[in-house]
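Format notes (please read before filing issues)

Several people have asked whether sequences and structure tokens are stored in separate files. They are not. Every record keeps both together, in the order shown below: the sequence lines, then the token lines. Line labels are part of the format and must not be stripped during preprocessing.
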Amino acid sequence: MSSPIGTLARVSHLVWDWNGTLLNDLGLVVAATNAALGTAGCAPVSEDEHRRDFRRPIVEYYGGLLGRAVTVEEFAEMDRVFHAEYRLGLLTCGLTADALTALTQWSGTQSLLSMWFHEELVPTVDRYGLTTHFRRIDGLKAGLGGGFKAEHLKTHLAELALDGPDAVLIGDSVDDADAAASVGARCVLYTGGFTARAKLEQVGVPVADSLVDAVRLAL
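Then the structure lines:
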């Protein structure tokens, strides 16, 4: 359930999630997920099923769908297939409808932290014309993804010379909220991304149905 604005202390810096938050790519992510699952003989999932069941680490999400543990080798191949399929469809994705409006409503500084590969994230954000909104843009710098965001957020804030309580994170997953809590940052969760509202409401942080409302809560 959404919380009143007064439950969040004013902070100076806003950290944005990318996939499923600023970028409206749920359909593409589900298609890429199904391509990856197909390599292991798993039946495809729908968008509603993905929003209901998705979790990190992604290897455990895949394992839950398969009903067994996924080996390191299997996950590496599934990750490769996922990203190959994702790259093919990326140009079909647009920003979330109110992303630009939300970005301009924040009066403090902003940055972007994604679990997508850094070398692909940076030019993509620039192609959407968003680079100038952010003090810093960080993506995944490892060769294999799917893990938790907490350590990445800690490093991201350190590079900005910020402490956790100086920031609020807007994202679309339980992992975003867990990452924020791990550094003492605030969090607002957006319901239009990868995770169903019912699941987000269980976390105990403010939940918003639009990015503009998410910024309003963060303020």
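For reference, the curators noted about this record: Strands lie at 13-16, 23-24, 94-95, 109-117, 137-140, 167-171, 186-190, 207-208. The CA atoms of residues 77 and 99 lie 33 Å apart.
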